[in-house]
Amino acid sequence: MIELYILLVLMIVGAIVTIELKDLLAAVISIGAVGMVLSIVFLIIKAPDLAITQIVVEMLCFIILLRATLKKDLPFSTTGSWLFNTFVAAGFIAIFLFVAVKAFKDLPEFGYPIMRVANIYLKEGLVKTGASNLVSSIILDFRAYDTLGEATILFTAVIGVLTIVRRIGRKKKDEIVEEDDE
Amino acid sequence: MIIYLLCLMLFCCGLYCILVKRNIIKIILGIIIAEYAVNLFFILVAYRMEGRAPILSSEVEIVNMVDPLPQALVLTSIVIGLATTTLLVAIAMRIYEKYGTFDITKIKELKG
């Protein structure tokens, strides 16, 4: 399990690099690295479906963020109550860490899940749904209403994006409507 | 236990980025990092020692599968994360078009 620790430390380093870089384009590229390492971690902890999805989503996310940040590199402002803000944020995170570590004591040990619900799915998944991949049998059969609700969120977000990026409202007669992302 | 703490550290990196940074793109990157950490935490809770992927085979009987339920939930959560990120980026680009900056301290008109 040592490789899992190494990859997680790599992810944390990538996240710190992303946060502290001044160049926006470099920050976007380094968050792409974090996402790729995350997909390798998914592969190691036996979630191949998630690894595939993560790689595809990471690429799309990278393209969209690249479209937003290209040629828009701006200096950061450090004016105002910078020190006070950092101090308050650090205090908040410290309180959060304290509470979370206390809560983690109630979790089952890593590697020994409870699986009260999942045992039924593992036993009866093939008989009841006929799918050999149990993740897809849960997504599309046992918990199909969850998936329906999440698809609703997805399409609501897409409608929101289309509403924001269209320019019909301010169009003059001789102006050509520009195509944006999505 | 240590691995949960590492995952929590990743979440705190994202949280720090959201709270302290003033560039809108940096805040969006912080949200993405926090989202990765939460997804990873669910899958870590589902892992079983010496486990196998939850895919059945006709030849050999596979015992000791990992928990498939969090994997199914996180699978849709990842795709939704992409959709919400796109929405955030679209809003950020509109703000850039209108005010010419990503810096939230310079966007005075947002305050009222």
- How many individual domains of chain A? 2
Please indicate the percent range of residues of chain A in DSSP E strands (runs of 2 or more): under 5%
Structural class of chain A: mainly alpha
Helical element count of chain A?
7
| Tally of helical runs of chain B | 3
Order of helices and strands of chain B: HHH
Rg of chain B (CA only): 20 Å
The whole-angstrom Rg of chain A is 22 Å
Largest sheet of chain A: none
Overall pLDDT level of chain B: 86
Largest interface, by Cβ-Cβ below 8 angstroms: which chains and how many residues each? A-B, 89 and 80 residues
The strand count of chain B comes to 0
**What would you call the shape of chain B?**
elongated
Return the CATH topology of chain B: Helix Hairpins
Number of domains of chain B: 1
Which ranges of chain A are low-confidence, i.e. pLDDT below 50, for 5 or more consecutive residues? none
Q: How much strand content do the residues of chain B show?
A: under 5%
Tell me about this structure:
Chain A: It is found in: Cell membrane. Chain A folds into 2 domains: 71 residues; 67 residues, no CATH class. Helices cover 70% and strands 0% of the residues of chain A. Chain A is built from 7 helices and no strands. In chain A, α1 packs antiparallel against α2, α5 crosses α6 and α6 crosses α7. The longest helix of chain A is centred in the middle third of the chain and has 23 residues. Chain A starts with a helix and ends in a 17-residue tail after the last helix. The relative contact order of chain A is 0.06. The mean pLDDT of chain A is 84. Chain B is an all-alpha fold and 112 residues long. Chain B has one domain: Helix Hairpins, CATH 1.10.287. The model of chain B has no long low-confidence stretch (mean pLDDT 86). Classes of the chains: A mainly alpha (182), B mainly alpha (112). Chains A and B meet through α1, α2, α3, α4 and α5 of A and α1, α2 and α3 of B.
